[in-house]
Every structure is written in C-alpha cells, then in structure tokens.
C-alpha cells in the first residue's frame, strides 16, 4: 500500500516525498482510525485527506466553510486530474443535479460541501446512496467556541456520522491552542483519534513589529523598499479604513483593492477573484478576508492595527509564503491599538468566563508586540511549542532592541495620572510632566501640582512610548467611559511603592522599513542575468495559461516549482517530471509549453 501511495503522490500530486508528518496522518486514515491533524498554513494539511480520497474506493466528503475555498481546491485538484466536485449554493440547479448523479455513480473522489448543506435532509439522503471513504473536517477550529472563527453549523455534523457510522473522520486546523484542541476532539467528536501535530513554525516568514508614526506612510515605505511587484494583504480594523488605505496606495503607484463585509457581494467576489488570478495585487481588508484564499505566493501580510489575539495574528500572517519562499509579516502598532482593544474588551457583554479569556489573549498579543526577545519564540510558546532562544529571522533577533530601566519615569507618570484625577489622556499627562502651559491645564490648576515639569528630561516620543508600555503591562488602563482617559491599573501600586522595577524597550528612531530585516520573495539572487530572464519568461507563460483558463496562476505551477525549473533547467519530459509539483496530468497539459521556454538559449 505504501508503494502505491508514493506512486500516487508522485504521479498525481507531483511530489517526490511526503513532508513533515503527512505520511503518519495518511497511514492513520487508511487504517480506519479517526485522526486529528494540526499543522501550519502551507504545511501540507490538505494532502492528508486528498491522497486517501484518491487512493480509497468511494468518495471522501470534505466539510469546508467557504465557497471560494471549495472552488479553489476543486479547481486545483481538477488540474491534477483528480475527480473532485464542490456542492454549494452558488451552483445552478442543473449543476447540482449533475454533481449528485456523479456521486451516485461513483464518479467523484472528493466532494467538498459546506456544513450547512451537509446536514440537510436531501444531502443526508444522498449519502445513503454513496459509498463514503472518509469524512474530512477542514478548518476544524470553527467547531470550538474558543477558536477564532466559531461556526455553530459545525456542531450539527454528528448527523453525518450517523448516516455513515463506520467511516473514519479526519479533522484539520492550522491554529488551535490546547483548549481549542480539546474542544475539537470532544465536539465533533473524534473517537480515540491519532493526533498528528507538526511544528507551528513558519521559518520562511520574517516577523517585524514597528511603532506607529504615520502608519500609512510607514506601510508605503515598507512596500516600496521590499515588495515591488509582489502580491500581499494589508489588514485593518474598520471598513472605512480599508477604503482609505487602498485609495492611498493606488495614488502612490500600487494596485490596491478594498475588501470588507459591507461591500456588494458581487464586488467582494470580484476582488477575491482578481487577487488570486492576477499578480502584483494588494488587498486592504478587514479580517473578513483571507480564510477562503488559497493563493500560494502572497509575499507579505501587513497589519496596520493590532489583532485581538496571537491565534488570529498567526492565522492571518500564515497566509504569506505558503509556497515556502521568503515572505514578511509586518505590523505597525501603537498606543491607540492598546487603548482601543482594551476599551472594547471592557464594554463586552459576553459571559464573564469568555471576557476573562479574551482579556488574557489580548495581554498575550500585547506581550508579543512589546517583547525585546525573539518574536518567533514567543509566538510558538502560545501553541505550547518550545523554540531556540533566537530564531535569526525576526526583527528583534536581527537587530536586537535597546532596553532601559524606566522605573523612575514610570513612577512619575503614574503619580501624575493619580494627582490629575485619573481621567486625562496620554497627551495631557505628558504636557503636565514636561511643564507645558496651556489654557486647559491652568484652568485645572494642574500647573500647581508637584508633578508639574518633573519630566523635562524625556522627549514627547519617549513619554508616549512609556505610556504605551505601561498600558500594555496593566500599570495603566483606559477609563471605562471610553473618552480616552487613563487610570491606574492593578499593577500600578507595586511599581509606585518601588517594589518592582520596570524595564522597557527603547523605540528605535530609525526608519522602520530600512531597519526591517525584510526579504523579497520574488527577488531571488540568480547566479546569472539569464536565470532571472528565464524566471520572468516562465512566470509570463504561466500567467498567460492561467488567464486563458480563468484560474489562478499558482494552480498551474507554484513559484517554488518555477524556481526549481530555473535551477535544474530540465529539457526533456522525463527530467521535467522530476521537478516537485509537476504531476502526470500537468506534464501532459503543460509540459511541452514549458519545455519550449526552458530549451530556449
């Protein structure tokens, strides 16, 4: 059986060997056991059910949450010669009928279906007439109320298991902390599953966080410096901000499109289609964008606002570099992010247990932004995974920040907050500390306080940095009225009494994009100009073929496959078939076209 699987892996999927722990997960499924796969985005999770779906007799039923994701995966499988079908609400009646007929006749290896449709009486009745080989639950974190994208429809999947009780189940996710993992196993449920957990590390992604100082200008400088000609995603918190930032990028020479849940559905679809089918496109989006996007050569993910949790951040940044080539996760972060999200959490009406959990997640996110240590180490620790002390591929490892003992200035600031009544914002407190006279300040008679003018030794930028880090450490909290004022937090007392020290990182004054250890995925260091020219010729051919078929270019060949073609320079069909990603079907469809380019002197 193993030899047969390796043959299918090479001939259908175009891969010479398994990656990571794929073989272990596939062996578990083939033995009839329930299986739980945790692996990072781009880690090859899909193969863990797609290969058994092709190898086993019958049809693999794949539960997938988004229509766009289903369609992309089906198109990619069809390119490989696999009999795959998606069944969803966007299909015409005739297409649904044809899909059901194909299923009943055993002419489908993998069927993708949304959870809502999967539990309808019509579909459950259809299953009685289909030989089901396995059930695969993709994006399984959606079943957990502790996950970042809870979908109540996933709770009804037990109806499928009743319709085909002896069929093995495999659940897959790229992001799940320990509690979410337990929830997935219990809620689906999985029966004494084999748990296959890969490392959550994405070594090809460079992580960088910079302090906000005109964030849109910082973003533009970062893109111009490191990502000319690349596709990427920029995440922001609000719908209006997506449109403003996209307009800003378009004015400055970038092809950018806004995406959010308030757009006309057809426009949203068009934006998603353009992003996956074209090169050199930037989408500025709320978190509504991304889970259904399977584009392999996203070279960067940027955040102009801080996510609510490390789990969400990991999921969003994981959309970069799925092809294994170099990519960037860049974030601009500031005091307003901290105050805004803290205020949002404080106004929550969710049950107390959920409020506490969300507050803890936010604190972990703040700790990641403010750390002077290795960011990758801290990110992996969130998923209970240890890592080396320094990864060598994040901003803090490549350009270690300077730290300083801010205990005395922090005490001055906390004292100022207390003596002014715990209701003023950061800007006002800094004015008092620096002894700046204003009409408002004199009206409040705060120029008479003992703290007035005691902070002239620090600049406004340094004080702002200290305020941000005091809020992140819970020494200061936003006032509950939501007007931007600050009050003493639960940790302030021990610091004011001198019982603890407060050491912080010093914000760099260097230009963020110049300091960033960012890499350009497409800016490969070719040995000769001829290799660079061949790379562009192969990409041009791929784009032409993709446009003719109205499919994304990566469905023909990933960037990593084209890169291997350049390096290996195959000139025969046999040699081309040994390039990773070139299976039998693609060799037959595209082999001669690409060989013609490769043979060109």
Indicate the topology.
Blueprint: H1 2-13, H2 22-30, E1 35-38, H3 47-55, E2 59-63, H4 67-79, E3 84-87, H5 93-104, E4 110-113, H6 115-118, H7 121-127, E5 132-137, H8 158-163, E6 169-173, H9 178-187, E7 194-197, E8 205-211, H10 215-226, E9 231-235, H11 239-251, E10 256-259, H12 265-277, E11 282-285, E12 298-303, H13 310-317, E13 327-333, H14 335-346, H15 352-370, H16 375-382, H17 395-398, E14 403-405, H18 407-419, H19 426-434, H20 439-443, H21 460-472, E15 476-478, E16 486-488, H22 492-496, E17 503-505, H23 512-515, H24 529-549, H25 559-568, H26 573-577, H27 584-599
Parallel strand pairs: 1-6, 1-7, 2-4, 2-5, 3-4, 5-6, 8-13, 9-11, 9-12, 10-11, 12-13
Antiparallel strand pairs: 14-17, 15-16
Short description:
The chain has 601 residues and is an alpha/beta fold. Helices cover 45% and strands 13% of the residues.
Structural class by helix and strand composition: alpha/beta
Q: What percent strand? A: 5-15%
Radius of gyration, taken over Cα atoms and rounded to an integer in Å: 27 Å
Summarize the biggest pleated sheet: 7 strands, parallel
Anisotropy-based shape: globular
Strand order of the largest sheet: 3-4-2-5-6-1-7
Q: For the residues shown, what is the average pLDDT?
A: 90
The level of helicity is: 40-55%
| Quantity of strands, as a count | 17
* Spatial gap, N to C terminus: 43 Å
Q: Report the uncertain regions.
A: 518-523
- The tally of helices reads 27
């Amino acid at each position: 059986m193993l030899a047969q699987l390796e043959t299918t892996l090479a001939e259908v999927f175009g891969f010479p060997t398994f990656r990571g722990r794929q073989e272990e997960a596939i062996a578990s499924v083939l033995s009839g056991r329930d299986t739980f796969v945790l692996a990072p985005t781009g880690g090859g999770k899909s193969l863990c059910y797609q290969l058994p779906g092709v190898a086993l007799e019958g049809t693999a039923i794949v539960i997938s949450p988004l229509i766009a994701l289903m369609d992309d995966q089906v198109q990619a499988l069809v390119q490989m010669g696999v009999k795959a079908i998606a069944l969803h609400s966007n299909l015409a009646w005739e297409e649904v009928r044809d899909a059901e007929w194909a299923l009943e006749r055993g002419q489908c290896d993998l069927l993708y279906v949304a959870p809502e449709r999967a539990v309808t009486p019509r579909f459950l009745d259809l299953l009685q007439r289909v030989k089901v080989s396995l059930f695969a639950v993709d994006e399984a974190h959606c079943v957990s109320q502790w996950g970042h994208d809870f979908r109540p429809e996933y709770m009804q999947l037990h109806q499928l298991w009743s319709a085909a009780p002896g069929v093995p189940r495999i659940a897959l996710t790229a992001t799940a902390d320990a509690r979410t993992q337990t929830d997935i196993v219990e809620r689906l449920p999985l029966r004494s599953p084999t748990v296959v957990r890969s490392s959550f590390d994405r070594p090809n992604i460079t992580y960088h966080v910079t302090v906000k100082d005109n964030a849109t200008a910082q973003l533009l400088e970062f893109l111009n410096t490191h990502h000319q000609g690349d596709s990427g995603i920029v995440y922001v918190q609000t719908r209006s901000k997506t449109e403003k930032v996209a307009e800003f990028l378009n004015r400055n020479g970038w092809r950018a499109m806004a995406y959010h849940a308030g757009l006309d559905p057809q426009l949203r679809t068009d934006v998603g289609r353009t992003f996956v089918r074209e090169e050199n496109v930037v989408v500025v989006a709320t978190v509504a964008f991304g889970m259904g996007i399977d584009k392999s050569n996203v070279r960067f993910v940027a955040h102009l606002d801080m996510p609510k949790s490390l789990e969400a951040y990991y999921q969003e940044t994981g959309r970069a570099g799925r092809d294994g080539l170099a990519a960037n996760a860049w974030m601009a972060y500031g005091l307003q992010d901290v105050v805004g999200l803290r205020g949002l959490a404080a106004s929550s009406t969710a049950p107390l247990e959920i409020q506490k959990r969300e507050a803890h997640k936010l604190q972990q996110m703040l700790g990641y932004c403010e750390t002077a240590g290795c960011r990758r180490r801290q990110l992996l620790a969130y998923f209970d995974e240890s890592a080396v002390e320094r990864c060598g591929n994040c901003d803090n490892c490549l350009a270690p920040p300077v730290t300083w003992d801010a205990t005395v200035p922090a005490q001055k600031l906390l004292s100022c907050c207390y003596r002014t009544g715990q209701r003023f914002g950061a800007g006002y407190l800094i004015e008092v500390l620096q002894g700046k006279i204003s009409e408002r300040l004199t009206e409040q008679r705060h120029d008479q306080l003992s703290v007035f003018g005691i902070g002239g030794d620090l600049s406004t930028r340094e004080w702002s940095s200290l305020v941000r880090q005091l809020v992140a450490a819970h020494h200061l909290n936003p006032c509950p009225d939501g007007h931007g004022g600050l009050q003493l937090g639960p940790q302030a007392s021990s610091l004011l009494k001198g019982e603890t020290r407060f050491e912080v990182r010093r914000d760099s004054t260097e230009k963020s994009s110049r300091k960033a250890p960012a890499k350009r995925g497409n800016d490969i260091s070719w040995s000769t100009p001829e290799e660079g020219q061949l790379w562009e010729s192969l990409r041009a051919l791929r784009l032409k073929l993709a446009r003719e078929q109205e499919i994304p270019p990566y469905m023909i060949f990933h960037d990593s496959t084209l890169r291997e073609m350049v390096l290996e320079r195959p000139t025969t069909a046999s040699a081309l078939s040994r390039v990773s990603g070139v299976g039998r079907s693609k060799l037959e469809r595209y082999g001669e076209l690409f060989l013609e380019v490769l043979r060109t002197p």
